[in-house]
Amino acid sequence: MKPIFFYLLLLLPVMCVAQTPVADGLTCEYLSNPVGIDIVTPRLSWKINTPQRNTMQQAYNIRVATDVSFSSSKIVWNTGKVNVDSSILITYGGTSLKPATRYYWQVRIWDNHNHASAWSKPAYFETGMFSPADWTASWIQPKQDSTARKIPAVMLRKQFGVSKKIVSARAYATAHGLYELYLNGKKVGDQVLTPGWTSYKKRLQYQVYDITAMLQQGDNVIGAMVGDGWFRGTTGYTNQWGFWGKKLALLCQLQITYADGTVQNINTDSSWKGTNEGPIRLDGIYDGENYDARKEISGWASKGFDDAGWELVDVASFNNKILVGVQSVPVHKIQEIKPIAIFKSPKGTQIVDFGQNLTGWVRLKVSGSAGQTIKIRHAEVLDKFGEFYTANLRSATATINYTLKGNGTEVFEPHFTFMGFRYIAVEGFPGELKPESFTAVVVHSDMPVTGQFTCSDTMINKLQHNIQWGQKGNFLDIPTDCPQRDERLGWTGDAQVFSRTAAFNMQVATFFAKWTKDVAADQSADGRVPFVVPNVFDTNHATSAGWGDVSVIVPWTMYQVYADKRILQNQYASMKGYVDYIIKQSGDKYIWHNGSVFGDWLFYRPGIYDFSEPNGYTNPDLIATAFYAYSSKLLSQAAGVLGNTADETYYNGIYEQVKKAFVRNYMTATGRIFADSQTGYVLGLKFGLIPDSLKAKAAAYLVEDVRSRNNHLSTGFLGTPYLCQVLSQNGYSNVAYDLLLQKTYPSWLYPVKMGATTIWERWDGIKTDSTFQDKSMNSFNHYSYGAVGDWMYQQMAGLQLGKAGYKHIIIKPEPHQKFSFVKATFQSMYGQVLSGWEVNNGTMQIHVNIPANTTADITLPKAHAEEVKLDGKPLAPDTAHMDDNGATISVGSGDYTFSYPWIEVKEKKAVTAKM
After folding, report:
1. How do residues 527-553 score in pLDDT, each as one tens digit?
2. 734 in helix, strand or coil?
3. DSSP per residue over 379-429, as a string?
4. What is the distance between the alpha carbons of residues 336 and 159, in angstroms, rounded to a whole number?
5. Which of 89, 164, 549, 622 is the most exposed place for a label (fewest CB within 10 A)?
6. What is the pTM of this model?
7. Which residues lie across from 382 on neighbouring strands?
C-alpha cells in the first residue's frame, strides 16, 4: 500500500490547475465578437474566473492581431506586462485600425497569488467604415409617390457575378425607412427593424453582415425590401407622417475579398432595379401591415429571375457624414409564446390570449383559399364585459391584414411594424382557431440579462416579472414610453426615472450610449432637451424638469454602473449645456420658475391635468428647482471624474446656491416642505437639499403622510423612483416595505392583484369595478413605476455599489419579518455578484458571492460578531467592525455564507415632527 502523500502528489497538479485563474468573457465595447465597430479606439474587457478567494489581478498582457495565429508580423498591439488591476474598458492603443477589418485579440493575467493565466481563447472585433470616403455606394430611390401618405413597401435587386475564390465578404447597409436585405433568396442576418431609430437628419446607423457563406460561384443576386418605418411613416400622436422624408431609399455596399488579395465592391447604383408591386401593400409602426400573398414575386432575390418589368432606380445624394456604425445591441426576435386560451367574447369576437402583455407580432400559420383575408387586431386588455378593448390605442390601428395565396399551408409574420398586446382578435380565419395557428413573437433590443431578483412573496416576484417585461416591451432600439398606442416615443422622463433599475435587469450600457447621443443631437443650441428623443415634436417646445435632466442623470448612472468614463466624455457638452440653460433661466435667485411642464406626472389625483388638486400635489417650481440642484451636483461630480477641476468647483457652487434657495423658498424652520407632499420630501431628501439639522423632521413628515394614507403612496413619475429609497436611507425601511406590500390603490401591487403582466402607466389603469380610469391615456405597458426595482435590489437584497463599476461592492441587506428570504444576482463587468438572505428557525443566513478583481464590505444586520459563523465556523476575532447596523466584514472575491441568531428588527419610530 502506497503512503498517503503519494496520492496527494498525484492530486497536486489538479489542485494547482484549479487555482490558476482564467481570463474569459472577453468583450469589445461591451459586445461579444462585434462586427461593424466604427470606434477608432475600442475598449476591451474581460472577467477572471477562479475558485480562489481574495483574488485580484496584478497585471495583464493584451495582444491584438489581424490573424488568429497571432504571428509576430500580424500583431498590431502588444501591451507587454502592464502592472495594474484594470480589467474593464481598456482602450486600444496599438497602430491605427483600418476600416472593414477583423482583429483578433487575447489577454492573459497575473494575480496576487503568484498565478499566471494562459492566453485566453481568441476573441475578435471587426471595424466598420471610419469615414464617408470609405463608402463607394450611392443612395438609390425606386420610383414611388412621395405625395401619398400610404404606399406599398418597395423591392430592389441587382445581379452580379463571382468568379474567384472568396476569403470573406461583408454587406454594409442602411436605409431611409426600415429594410430587410436578401442574398440569393435568403434573408441576410437575423436582425429586425433595421436600421433602428435615431435622429435621422443627424445620425443614421448602418449594419454590417458577414455574407461569406451566402455567396456562390457564378451569378448572385442581392435584394432588399424597404418599408416606411419611423422615417417616412406616421410618428407622434399628432398624426404627422414623413417627418424625416417622403421617399424611401437604400444604401448598400458589398465588399468581397478574394484569395488573390483583390477586393470587389458591389454597390447600390443606377443599375439597380425596383418595384412597388410586391406583397406588402401597407406598413406602418402604428398601422400594422397589409400583406397580399397573391402578389408575392417568386425568386425575386435569386438568379434567373426576369426583372424586365422592374424600373431602374434614381440615384440620390445624401450626407454620408451622419452615418454611424451600430452602437447599440441589435433588435431581435427574442422568444416565442403560445396561446393559453382561445375563446369567443360575449358579442362573438374570436379572441386569442397569450397570457402575457408583450411587444412584437404574431406568426400566423393557415391554409385556405386564394383571396381570403384574415384580419388580426391587437389589444392589451379586455373590458369589464370580456370584450376586445382598443380605445386606449387611440388612432393606432395596430392591425394585420393577410390575404392568402391559396397554396397549401402558409406562414406569415410582419416585416416593418410591431404591436403591444396580450390578446388578438381574429376575423376571417378559415376554419376553427387552434393554438398551433398562432405564435406571439417577442421583439426587443437583445440586451443580455444581468439581474435576477426573487423572494418568498409571490406577488413581489410577480411585480419583478412585470418590471422586467415592461423593460422588454419598451426597450426596442430606444426607450419608448409604451409599445401599443399612437405614441411609442422616446420620452426622456420615463427613461430617466427607470435607468437605474434597467441597469440591474439587463446590460444597457450600449443601449443608452447610443440613445444619449441622440439626446445630444436633438438638444437645442441653448441647451434645452426635448420631451422625446428622437424629437418628432416642434423644435420650439420647451424642456421640462425631470425630463430634460435625462441628459445628466443617465450618463452619470451609466458611469456608476459600468465605470464608463467615455460616456461622460461623449455627453459632457450635452450635460453642461442643459445645466447652463437652467442657470440662465433661473438667474441670481436660483429658483427655476416655469421649468416644470409635466410636474410630478400622474401622481395620485382624480384628473389628468388638474394640477390644482391638493391631494399629493407638488409645486412644479419646487420640482424644477430640486432637479436643477441635482443635475448641477451630478455635473460637478462628472467634471471631477473627468479631471475638470474648474467645472467641478463651479457647478458644485451652483448646487450649494440652489440648495440655499430651496430652503429659503420651500421649507419652514420646522422641516416642513411647501405643499407637504410625499414627492416634495422625497426630492428634498434624495437630492441633499435639506439641512442636516432638519433631515430627521422632514423624514418624519414623509412617514406621517404615508401613515395618514394607510400606507399608500401619492407620488408620480418623479417621486416614485426615490420614495422607498429615501425611507430606507432615513431609517424607515419598514415603512418602505409597508408601501411595497400594499395591495390596494394606489400601490405597486394593486395592478398585480388586478392581473397585470407588465407595469401600468397609471396607478389605477383598471379600477376595482373593472372599468378604465381613462380612455385616451391608459397604457398597460409603461415601465416608469417599475423603478422601485432599484430599491428591491439595493435595499431588500442589499446589493449596492461601492465604487464605479462595482470595483468595490457593498452588501447591506435590510430584512423584513414578512419575508423568509430575498435573493438577488447581478452580472457586473467583473462577474456575478450575489446577495441573498434567509431566515430559518431563528437563524439568519446570508449568502454572498463577490467576483474576482473586486472587494466588498458585507454588513450583517443586527449581528454580534461573536455569534457569527462563516461557512459553519466561528468568525475570527477582530474580523468584523461593529456599529448600530450590525457587523461589517471586509472581504475579497469568493463565495461566503454567514449565519447567526436572528431577532426580528423592530420598526423605527418616527421623530416627532410637530412643533
Report:
1. 999 999 999 997 777 899 999 999 999
2. helix
3. ESEE-TTS-EE-GGGTT---EEEEE---SSEEEE--SS--EEEEEEEEES-
4. 36
5. 164
6. 0.95
7. 388
Distance from first CA to last CA of the chain, Å, rounded?
86
Q: Is 9 exposed, middle or buried (0-12, 13-18, 19+ CB in 10 A)?
A: exposed
Cα–Cα distance list, 335 to 445, 472, 634 (Å): 12, 11, 38
Distance in angstroms (rounded) separating the CA atoms of residues 548 and 595: 10
CA-to-CA distance for 171 and 210, rounded, in angstroms?
A: 7
Instruction: Tell me the mean pLDDT in the region 294-310.
Output: 97
Q: Which CA distances in Å does 686 have to 433, 558, 679, 719, 728?
A: 54, 19, 10, 10, 11
Q: pLDDT at position 914, please?
A: 43
**Cβ 360 vs Cβ 441: under 8 Å:** yes
828-887 pLDDT, tens digit per residue, is 999 999 999 999 999 999 999 999 999 999 999 999 999 999 999 999 988 999 998 899
Q: Given pLDDT bands bounded at 50, 70 and 90, which one contains residue 906?
A: low
Q: What pLDDT is attached to residue 18?
A: 53
Torsional sign, CA 390, 391, 396, 397: positive
Residue 905 burial (10 A CB sphere; 0-12, 13-18, 19+): middle
Q: At what angle do helices 678-686 and 645-666 cross, to 10 degrees?
A: 150
- Taking only the tens place, the pLDDT of each residue in 215-273 is 999 999 999 999 999 999 999 877 899 999 999 999 999 999 999 999 999 999 999 99
The answer on pLDDT for 611 being more than 70 is no
- Per-residue buried b or exposed e for 84-119, using 16+ beta carbons within 10 Å of the residue's own CB: eeebbbbebebeebebbebbbbbbbbbbeeebebee
326: confidence class by pLDDT, cuts 50, 70, 90: confident
Q: Is the pLDDT of residue 495 over 90?
A: yes
Q: What is the DSSP string of 525-582?
A: TTS---SBSS--S-TT----TTTTTHHHHHHHHHHHHH--HHHHHHHHHHHHHHHHHH
- Alpha-carbon dihedral angle through residues 820, 459, 451, 819, given to the nearest 10 degrees: -10
Q: Are 429 and 381 in contact (CB under 8 A)?
A: no
Distance CA 574, CA 834 (A): 35
Q: How does DSSP classify residue 914?
A: -
Contact assessment for residue 726 and residue 685, using Cβ atoms and an 8 Å cutoff? yes
320 within 8 A of 132, measured Cβ to Cβ: yes
Cell 461622460 belongs to: 568
**Is 90 exceeded by the pLDDT of residue 389?**
yes
**Running DSSP on this structure, what letter comes out for residue 436?**
G
Whether residue 195 is preceded by a cis peptide bond, meaning omega within 30 degrees of 0, is: yes
Question: Which residues does residue 315 pair with via DSSP β-bridges, in sequence order?
Answer: 140
Helices (H), 602-677: 620-641, 645-666
Residue with cell 431588500: 796
Annotated catalytic residues are 487, 761
3-state helix, strand, coil in the chain (%, to 5): 25, 30, 45
Give the model confidence (pLDDT) of 659-677 as tens digits: 999 999 999 999 999 878 9
Domains of the chain and any CATH numbers: 4-127 (2.60.40.10), 132-328 (2.60.120.260), 451-796 (1.50.10.10), 799-901 (2.60.420.10)
771-788 mean pLDDT: 94
pLDDT at residue 903, as a whole number: 82
The cell for 214 is 451566402
Q: Which residues pair with 845 in a beta bridge?
A: 838, 899
Average pLDDT, the chain: 94
DSSP H or E run through 102? strand 102-111
Q: Give 818: exposed, middle or buried? Use CB within 10 Å, 0-12, 13-18, 19+.
A: middle
Total residues found in the chain within this entry: 915
